[in-house]
Every structure is written in structure tokens, then in C-alpha cells.
Automatic annotation (TrEMBL):
This is PREDICTED: YLS9. The chain crosses the membrane at residues 41-67. PANTHER family: NDR1_HIN1-LIKE PROTEIN 3 (PTHR31415:SF4), OS05G0367900 PROTEIN (PTHR31415). It is a single-pass membrane protein. It is found in: Membrane. GO terms for biological process: defense response to other organism. Pfam families: LEA_2. Keywords: Membrane, Transmembrane, Transmembrane helix.
Length: 232
């Protein structure tokens, strides 16, 4: 019995003991220090941009509350068309004079007009240009009058224009567009802005004047469309 017990003292008959596992670290994106740094930078840039947008928006809103800017208003109050006819060689002979009123309704903003160019257009064909290079300043809540005159002759080869002209000739009222191209600067207190180039379109219906009297109808004051950012 003692021999059997001594034989069993060094043996182990239980379950096998698994070997110790070695720690293994897989290098992935989550542990990339460069990726973490880039994420922090992008987050910081985004926060700075959003802060700047909020500050600019708030400043613009405060400026609007103080100044309350309004658009400059343009009206054609009178139009005198004493000649408007085609000759046999598709030459348009014309004589058109306008009274154009410019109203500044703002209480705290003045306007410098550095240049005014007016183009007369008939059926999408420009036939005359008037340019005023005499600058002037328009104060608060004031009205100025500009008198563009279009006189001369212009060859218009498009036969579609002539056919449309014949239809309007029967009524004695002609649909003429006048487009204004401006160079202006605005003044608020001692602050002067850079140059803006607003464009104005006046769609006119002008009766022909013959022997000092209107042939048919009378001209009605026409409000012009103002666009500071888009072409008209």
C-alpha cells in the first residue's frame, strides 16, 4: 500500500491547465494619435467658423435695427416720344425724352452717384444709349431728377422687330424698355462703402406724340425694378 501511495504522490489526474495567453495589441484607427489630432483640429475650425457666422449675423442684425435701410426708388414720371418709325432700309428713327425720378427714402444713408448709363431697348434690340458721367450726391429723404434723351437712328436688321412694330403702330403706343446701369456708393455717417453696380429696368408703354398732342392715350408713371445683385 505504501508503494502505491508513493507512486501516486507526483501525479496529477485533473483537467489540463491551459497555457497563459500572451497579450496582443492590435493597432487600429482608434489608437492612431494623428487621427485624433486631425479630428480635434477640424472640430476647432468648425466651432470657429460657426462663431464667426453668428457674430457677423448678429452685427448685421444690429446694424439693420439702427439704420433700417430701404431700397432706392426709381420712377419714370414723363415720357415724350416725338419720333419712332422705320425707313425702308430697316433703320429706326427715334426721339425719346424721359423724366426719371430717383428717391432716397433713407433717414441715415446718403448715396453718391458716380455714373449713370441708360439704354433704350425695343424688342430686345438696343437702339440708343445715354450716359451721365457728372457725379452727384443724394442726401437723406430727397428726390433727384435725371433727364435721359435718346435721339438718332439705328439699323435693326431683325425682321421680327419690324413685324412687332407694325402691330404696335396701329395702337400708337410702343413698348420700350429702359435699363439703367449705375455706379453708386453709400454713406452712413462718416463711413463710405465701396462701389456697387445696381441695375434697374423700366418697362414703358409710350404713346407717340404727333403735332404736340398724344395720338392715343397718355403716359402713366411707371415704377422701375431695382436689383442690386442680379443682372436684369
Amino acid at each position: 500500500m505504501s508503494e502505491k501511495q508513493s507512486h501516486l504522490n507526483g501525479a496529477y489526474y485533473g483537467p489540463s491547465i491551459p497555457p497563459k495567453s500572451q497579450a496582443y495589441h492590435r493597432h487600429g484607427r482608434g489608437s492612431d494619435p494623428l487621427g485624433c489630432c486631425c479630428g480635434c483640429i477640424f472640430s476647432l475650425i468648425f466651432k470657429l467658423i460657426m462663431t464667426a457666422v453668428v457674430i457677423v449675423g448678429l452685427a448685421f442684425f444690429i446694424f439693420w435695427l439702427i439704420v433700417r435701410p430701404n431700397r432706392i426708388k426709381f420712377h419714370v414720371t414723363e415720357a415724350h416720344l416725338t419720333q419712332f418709325n422705320f425707313s425702308n432700309d430697316n433703320t429706326l428713327h427715334y426721339n425719346l425724352a424721359l423724366n426719371l425720378t430717383i428717391r432716397n427714402p433713407n433717414k441715415k444713408i446718403g448715396v453718391y452717384y458716380d455714373r449713370i448709363e441708360a439704354r433704350a431697348i425695343y424688342e430686345d434690340q438696343r437702339f440708343s444709349t445715354y450716359t451721365s458721367t457728372t457725379p452727384f450726391y443724394q442726401g437723406h429723404k430727397t428726390t433727384n431728377v435725371v433727364n435721359p434723351v435718346f435721339q438718332g437712328q439705328q439699323v435693326i436688321p431683325d425682321t421680327k422687330v419690324l413685324s412687332e412694330y407694325n402691330e404696335q403702330k396701329n395702337s400708337g403706343v410702343y413698348e420700350i424698355d429702359v435699363k439703367l446701369y449705375l455706379r453708386v456708393r453709400f454713406k452712413f455717417g462718416l463711413i463710405k462703402t465701396g462701389k456697387f453696380k445696381p441695375r434697374i429696368k423700366c418697362g414703358l408703354k409710350v404713346p407717340l406724340t404727333q403735332n404736340g398732342s398724344k395720338s392715343l392715350g397718355t403716359f402713366e408713371t411707371t415704377k422701375c425694378d431695382v436689383d442690386y445683385f442680379k443682372s436684369i
